[in-house]
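Async update (no meeting this week)

Hi team, since we skipped the sync, here's where things stand on the single-chain job. The sequence we agreed to prioritize is pasted below, unchanged from the tracker. I ran it this morning and attached the output directly underneath so nobody has to dig for it. Comments welcome in thread, and please keep replies under the output.
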Amino acid sequence: MMYQELDKFYLKVDQRLSLVAPQMHHALPLFELIKNERPYLKTWLSWVEKTQTLQDVKRFIREAQAFNEGGQRLTTFLNYQNQIVGSVGFVRLNMRHKKGEIGYWLSKDHQGKGITTLSCFKFIDFAFRELQLHRIEIRVLSKNEKSKGIPLRLGFQHEGQLRQAIRLNQLYHDMDIYGMLASQWINIQEELKREGVSS
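Output:
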């Protein structure tokens, strides 16, 4: 897949779960999810407070489509049993330097099922194999222990901490950085498959 085709992205994870490029028909279910889980989501995600109306979600989808098409990002929604339950994607994608930074979030009601870990595994494997990336980063709020578990389970290396790197809910928060190189992934992904992380 060429990066010019990322706006048409689709990746089957298993029989229940797939990663899909944002489409306008996703706007209403995504808005309802955000509205219903706003108190939880805004604890960790800065964009939640600015997403107050259906029009805000539609504007986000249009922007995501444009960035996907341009290859600067790759936003995908998690379609679990025909429900939008979250997102995994590249919040930054630099094809010149062959690197990307992954971001993800998941509905509180769907946590504990391995959805995010499995989705990230498939997404990372796609990025190294199909996009030929050299490096992938994951940056996580230092106090978000659940979210930090994802890169650790996937074999990422903890590379450091950025002090007070993000402002959220009127406070500054530290962020931990995790990294993976393509040369490492070749061995790690086989080990993860043996451990049952992949489907």
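Quick observations from my side:
The first strand starts at residue 10 and ends at 12.
The two ends are 22 Å apart (CA to CA).
Reply here if anything looks off.
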